[in-house]
Amino acid sequence: MAHTDHQTMRRVLRREIAGTIGLLTDEHDFRAMRRYRSFTFDDHATYLQQVENLLRTRALQGTHTTVALFDPQEYAEYCAAKGLDPDVPANRTRFTAELATTGPTIPYEGQPLADLLPALVDEAVRQATWEYAATLLARLGACATCGEDIGRAAFTRASNLVARILDTAPPGNRHLVCSVTAAPETLVSVLHADDEADGATQLDEAEALEFTTVLALGLATQHPGGLVMRTTAPETPDQIYGWRLRGDGLEPLTAGEVFDAYCTDAESGDLISPESGVDYCFPPDLGQDRPTPGHQH
Length: 297
Description:
Blueprint: H1 2-16, E1 19-23, H2 27-33, H3 44-60, E2 65-69, H4 72-82, H5 89-102, E3 105-107, H6 113-139, H7 150-168, E4 173-180, E5 187-195, E6 201-203, H8 205-221, E7 225-232, E8 238-246, E9 249-252, H9 255-262, E10 278-280
Parallel strand pairs: 1-2, 8-10
Antiparallel strand pairs: 2-3, 4-5, 4-7, 5-6, 7-8, 8-9
Helix pairs in contact: 6-8, 7-8
């Protein structure tokens, strides 16, 4: 009887232990792990199938699982820094456990792996974009004229601009895209803001932080960039409008400029047919406060 009770207790505890699975999302990363003898998978497709089976089994048992992006290069660097043998499975488990708190992760909620994989990659790109933009902001240092931290001031201004953009937007679900030209490539960040039943705006805090950081970088460095808003509401045409980054503020795009941007292929320059049920508009007045003339960070 006691033995049965212990088994039951173990099953209950197992269900309450949250786990993290490190996932090799592409063939290149999978091949990199095959150099370790203790990594016994031969085929990436079979590996993904086995992972999906494991996720489903854990879900059926009532166990919560987080899926993390496993990067073989980061794993090798991690083992080298800590003096660990990368060919020991326990060290992969240790690395994966740390990913749960530091790396890009997605909770498994029964979705097909085909849907989870791109979402996990998108999360990794979003986190890398934020980390890169935040690093560049921090490196700007203090203003030689007034001593103010340039990055912090730009972030405050970007936060105010995002709040005004959301406050002046028409009712509905909002989709914002901010792009800033920065070496070695253009940074792009997306922010979703949905209206709730009580009129409040629902935001993902991590997404909002990344979006504001990218906008702040554009304002602080005065690199070319732009911000586009699309609002969607029932029984009304979608509205699209935007701004270009100009100096340390935003300059409205005309309806024609927004139309041209959406109806021109970015790579070929060819015209694209405009979407039906979409209004290309001039943006609302943000009422931007201007900095002191003659002094810009």
